[in-house]
Amino acid sequence: MPELSEVLWGRIEPLLSEWAEVATYDAPGVGTQQGTEGLDAEAIAKRGLAEIDRRGWDRCFVVADGYALEPAARLADTRSNAVQGLALGHAHLAIRREGPEPTVNAELAGAIQQMVKVDFRSFVRALTQLTQGAVDDELADRLMERLDQRVAVEYARALVGSRVSIAPFLKRYGGPLLFVEHEGCLFWTDSGYGEATAAFPKAETASVADTPSTSPDFVKRLRLFCERVADEDEHGAANG
Hints:
It is globular, with a radius of gyration of 17 Å. The protein is α/β, with parallel strands linked by helices. It has helices at about 15, 40-55, 70-80, 105-120, 120-130, 135-145, 150-160, 165-175, 190-200, 215-240, and strands at about 60-65, 85-90, 175-180, 205-210. Helix 4 packs antiparallel against helix 5 (about 120-130), helix 4 packs antiparallel against helix 7 (about 150-160) and helix 5 (about 120-130) packs across helix 6. The protein has a domain at about 5-95 and about 165-240: Rossmann fold (3-Layer(aba) Sandwich). A 4-stranded parallel sheet has the order 1-2-3-4, with helices on both faces. About 50% of the residues lie in helices and about 10% in strands.
């Protein structure tokens, strides 16, 4: 699912396509989806549901990173019978920069919010720094082609803090979970990951050195998760 644009999955999509049928899309308001809709978690989830229906999938795995965790959790809750498993990069339950255990770096979140209002191009370039090089200049250029400043401002505002916890969505979904940590991440905090794993102790966990949406190691770990869950579903159906 898109954090902003399918462009951000471009680096690992070929690796995913080697063993899975992959669907990616831009968030409403971005690229080919430009229109009156904003960067809203519910709208992104509805767009994902429409993509599942368009492809005629009865079963699928949902993968999300960063800001896309809320729409992914909403989708899994809405269509729990179709979602075999849910894999979440930069796993957290809520976007929170205040309090004793913030889930995002408050200083960086504030700087991003100010930067996007002043210089849209610098904001996109800042993603290169924020992702520690995972979003390189080429990806930044492609992203800039699809974004306008209005959507970028909404994205920056979302990063400042959402009061919505995805825990209720995940509990109602009740299916297999994979929580992935980005080691040494500058933006998402260890507290956020710890909060998620404590709330869902049965979730599988993994750590990768790069941003999950750009990490070949994430692809390898995701494949193991998907194959295990699919095998268990197949054996369960055979024995049922």
